Here is the input.
Amino acid sequence: MKRSLTLAMLLSLSLAPFARAANEADYKAAYAAAEAAAKEAAGMRNQWTTTVSTLAAARKAGESGDFDGAVAAAKEAEALAKASVFQATSEKDAWKAMEIR
Here is the structure.
């Protein structure tokens, strides 16, 4: 049992992808996706303020050369923007159910 567990752990570690540092191209792709999602949310007039500040943090990190931090912030900003879009679309007609009749 112990030997098979060790073998399984070694096999899983050998097949696991190695982590690599983000580069400028990764940052630009993540930032473009986040910016597009933020523009969609702004177009729906439901852009969260946290999205704007997180997107600004991603830009600042990218400009300073911290591409790992910039990619992480851009992905977070994209997730926030997508959540605000989801909120806008799901609550578009939901208020009707809350209306007292």
User: Anything to note?
Assistant: The CA atoms of residues 53 and 60 lie 10 Å apart.
